[in-house]
Amino acid sequence: xxxxxxxxxxxxxxxxxxxxxxxxxxxxxxxxxxxxxxxxxxxxxxxxxxxxxxxxxxxxxxxxxxxxxxxxxxxxxxxxxxxxxxxxxxxxxxxxxxxxxxxxxxxxxxxxxxxxxxxxxxxxxxxxxxxxxxxxxxxxxxxxxxxxxxxxxxxxxxxxxxxxxxxxxxxxxxxxxxxxxxxxxxxx
Length: 188
What we know:
single chain; mainly alpha; two-stranded antiparallel sheet; TF_Kbox
């Protein structure tokens, strides 16, 4: 509640956090960056292992896709829905025909349209990826079923071949048992 005691607590905890970050860097041989902004808006930063700029650059490179998604989500929250956007565009287009629309309005409208288009494309991509994944799963199931059927067919073919072989052996034994073997006359 007291502003001065809050400031003292902030300083102690900030220093403790910075020390823990340094210890983590030393003990684990890793690069650590910590950025703290006080309630007054003052920025405190600490890095160990590498420079702050290098760590932030590496973070940015690894999380580019996440940052784009977050940026896109923020833009969609601040803009109109597609239906409202289309109505606005139609209204602004009619105004533009009268030549009394400002350049700023057109630029704003263009940005809203780009954002809506980007959101639409992102959603389309998500749906397409889900569809591809679904088809891949179905393909996997069908391949497994196909393999099971192929194994069953192989077993059936082998069984029939064995049955036919058994029939042939039995018929040869029967044939051999009824007729004595023929001897060839050696001397005549």
